[in-house]
């Protein structure tokens, strides 16, 4: 299904609002987002060749391995947040177990590289395949319930994964984590000096994940998934099967998370059990909500902002300026998660659309509010 | 034989702990549809409050121990009531956002607890008898298990009596059944929401103090680790059902103890049990319907 079908109902993620106005026409045109996106990708791709310094946000100039490491982490989390957006934003499935698939990717690749003679690409392919099988099995069970129960069930499965990882130290390294065995990894991806190659790999990953998510949202199955989110009964009445649509979304989102996990493993040269914890999924949820639920760009921006904030707040926490403050201020400021958690609460309470929603509101004024209200009424 | 009895009673003790957390979760969900991720923080704060009291007054005295239980419950209740008034109340009927707010609260508070009390577990002191053991039919059972079981039974009886015999209880029961009808009859059901949160918080705070004696320490992650099992218990028991939560707590904990002792796979067995229950009975043991 192409995006051009004009008659297809398009309840996909909130449209660039304000199609009527002159600004709206430009913003709403199909080519502009494509051009902006392409330009951003090109800009991101040449960053390792430039020496841009953004004091306070980046730890150093952009060609330094340390900075590239942080930027790669941003890209990887952006890809992961996008896969979560597919689950939560598009299909409305609140999962608390998405970290499980990320961990399957990281640990799966690690174990295959350590135990077999496979080279990198087949190993990644096999890992993704394993992830798809796991997602099919667990998805089929957990999709028997919906809403909050679904959230709890996915949480329970992810917790079981976390326990498995921690308990089976002979395979996963237990609490110590698993290191990357570089024997069968191409040389240009190994070592601190090659960080920029890994950075480009992460960028490619983000582009791939973005394209898959965008393509899926415009596909037939994607429309059914969105319709199921809005009104499951109506979908049933139309003779479509909500269960299959949900399962497809679940498997695709999980497969993307597995793929992201493999790149994360290469970037970090290892993985610790934290990647499979429920807290990690919550972090992911924070990213998506911070950026704006239901918006692809929002998920990416949210992930980048969160990762940078987390990093910079940790730096702030260990700075002398904070250490000299009285306890009442020092203790909260020295805990990045406290600040991020509070920020998250404020966003949920006062900025329901997150960053993307706020930008859209400011950009198109009242029209967007009216459009949003209309859409809500339609949904009811 | 003695091993079986030991596992059974220890399992009952753990089940009591699960119930103290799950009862509040289940009530809150049943009445308001809120999945409360901050429930673990209620428990942790209660545990720290109890710990601070025993640290100051000497934990080996009985009256201090009892006072720490009361204080833990009171702090848990106050924290929960404040959460409801300040955060949840603004988002009525928006269940996903309510869950998100509690997620944020749980992240922020756990970080704050770590900042205040540090990341390492802190060992707690208790009256000597509590740290000792009692021999029953040849099994040597830690005494704190009995206290846990008694406390959980008292809480169960207390909540049931409250729901049965008071006007608030009547409103809450009616609200779980059909909230719009209660509102239509002109009753302010929002007060009941705060009360339910406070009750759940009190049970969790009490559970926190007892959990610190069960595990022997307090830490900022005490609540989080128990919360996941409490979630599982709530789903297995049927969301919103107090009796279901009680039955499931005991079943899950006893099964977990046996599986841990004989095969070392307690946590996995619990998850498998959850999957099995969902496959056979998606609404849980005593749940009426699955909310979308």
Unreliable segments of chain B (pLDDT under 50, ≥5 consecutive)?
none
- Compressed to H and E, one letter per element, the order of chain A equals HHHHHHHEHHHHEHHHHHH
Overall geometry of chain B: globular
**CA-based gyration radius of chain A:** 21 Å
Largest sheet of chain A: 2 strands, antiparallel
Let me know the largest β-sheet of chain B: 2 strands, antiparallel
Please, what is the oligomeric state? Answer: heterodimer
Largest interchain contact: A-B, 42 and 46 residues
Order of helices and strands of chain B: HHHHEHEEHHHHEHHH
Q: What is the number of strand segments of chain A?
A: 2
Q: State the helical fraction of chain B.
A: over 70%
Mean pLDDT across residues of chain B: 84
Tally of discrete structural domains of chain B: 1
Separation, N- and C-terminal Cα atoms of chain B: 46 Å
Low-confidence stretches of chain A: 1-20, 373-380
Kindly describe this structure.
The complex is a heterodimer of chains A (380) and B (292). With 380 residues, chain A is an all-alpha fold. Chain A contains 17 helices and 2 strands. In chain A, strands 1-2 form a two-stranded antiparallel sheet. The two termini of chain A are 27 Å apart. The N terminus and C terminus of chain A are likely disordered. Chain B is mainly alpha-helical. Chain B has one domain. Chain B has a two-stranded antiparallel ribbon. Chain B has a two-stranded antiparallel ribbon with strand order 2-3. In chain B, helix 1 runs parallel beside helix 6 and helix 2 runs antiparallel to helix 3. The mean pLDDT of chain B is 84. At the A-B interface, helix 6, helix 12 and helix 16 of A face helix 4, helix 10 and helix 12 of B.
């Amino acid at each position: 299904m192409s995006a051009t079908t004009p008659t297809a109902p398009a309840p996909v993620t909130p449209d660039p609002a304000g199609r009527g106005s002159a600004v709206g026409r430009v913003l709403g045109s199909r080519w502009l987002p494509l051009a902006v996106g392409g330009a951003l990708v090109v800009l991101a791709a040449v960053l390792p060749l430039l020496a841009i310094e953004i004091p306070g946000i980046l730890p150093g100039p952009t060609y330094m391995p340390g900075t590239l490491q942080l930027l790669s982490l941003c890209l990887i989390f952006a890809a992961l947040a996008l896969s979560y957006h597919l689950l939560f934003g598009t299909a409305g499935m609140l999962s608390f177990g998405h970290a499980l698939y990320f961990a399957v990717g990281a640990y799966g690749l690690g174990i295959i590289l350590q135990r077999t003679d496979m080279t990198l690409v087949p190993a990644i392919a096999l890992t993704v395949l394993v992830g798809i099988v796991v997602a099919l099995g667990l998805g089929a069970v957990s999709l028997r319930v919906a809403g909050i129960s679904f959230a709890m069930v996915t949480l329970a499965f992810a917790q079981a994964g976390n326990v498995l990882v921690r308990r089976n130290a002979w395979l996963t390294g237990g609490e110590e984590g698993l290191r990357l065995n570089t024997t069968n990894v191409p040389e240009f991806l190994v070592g601190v000096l090659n960080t920029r190659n890994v950075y480009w790999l992460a960028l490619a990953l983000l582009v791939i994940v973005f394209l898959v998510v965008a393509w899926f949202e415009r596909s037939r199955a994607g429309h059914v998934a969105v319709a199921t989110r809005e009104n499951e009964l109506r979908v049933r009445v139309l003779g479509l099967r909500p269960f299959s649509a949900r399962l497809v979304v679940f498997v695709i989102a999980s497969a993307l998370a597995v793929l992201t996990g493999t790149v994360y493993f290469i970037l970090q040269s290892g993985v610790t059990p934290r990647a499979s914890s429920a807290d990690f999924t919550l972090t992911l949820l924070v990213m998506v909500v911070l950026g704006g639920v239901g918006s692809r760009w929002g998920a990416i921006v949210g992930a980048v902002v969160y990762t940078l904030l987390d990093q910079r707040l940790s730096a702030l926490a260990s700075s002398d300026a904070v250490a000299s403050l009285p306890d009442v201020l020092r203790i909260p400021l020295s805990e990045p998660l406290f600040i991020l958690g509070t920020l998250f609460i404020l966003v949920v309470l006062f900025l329901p659309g997150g960053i993307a929603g706020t930008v859209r509101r400011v950009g198109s004024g009242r029209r967007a509010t009216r459009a949003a209200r209309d859409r809500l009424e339609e949904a009811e | 034989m003695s091993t079986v009895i030991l596992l059974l009673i220890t399992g009952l003790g753990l089940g009591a702990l699960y119930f103290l957390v799950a009862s509040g979760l289940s009530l809150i969900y049943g009445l308001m549809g809120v999945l409360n991720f901050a429930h673990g923080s209620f428990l942790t704060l209660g545990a720290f409050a109890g710990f601070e009291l025993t640290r100051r007054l000497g934990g080996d005295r009985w009256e201090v121990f009892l006072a720490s239980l009361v204080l833990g419950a009171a702090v848990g209740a106050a924290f929960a009531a404040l959460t409801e008034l300040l955060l949840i109340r603004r988002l009525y009927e928006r269940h996903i956002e309510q869950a998100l707010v509690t997620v944020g609260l749980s992240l922020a508070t756990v970080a704050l607890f770590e900042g205040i009390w540090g990341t390492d577990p802190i060992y707690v002191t208790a009256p000597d008898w509590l740290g000792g053991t009692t021999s029953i039919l040849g099994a040597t059972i830690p005494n704190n298990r009995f206290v846990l079981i008694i406390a959980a039974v008292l809480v169960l009886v207390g909540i049931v009596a409250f729901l049965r015999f008071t006007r608030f209880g009547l409103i809450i029961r009616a609200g779980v059944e059909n909230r719009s009808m209660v509102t239509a009859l002109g009753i302010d059901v929002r007060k009941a929401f705060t009360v339910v949160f406070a009750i759940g918080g009190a049970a969790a705070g009490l559970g926190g103090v007892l959990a610190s004696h069960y595990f022997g320490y307090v830490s900022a992650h005490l609540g989080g680790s128990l919360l996941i099992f409490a979630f599982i218990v709530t789903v297995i028991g049927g969301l919103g059902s107090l009796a279901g939560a009680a039955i499931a707590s005991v079943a899950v904990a006893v099964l977990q103890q046996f599986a841990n002792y004989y095969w070392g796979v307690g946590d996995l067995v619990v998850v498998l049990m959850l999957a099995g229950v969902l496959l056979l009975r998606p609404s849980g043991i005593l749940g009426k319907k699955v909310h979308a």
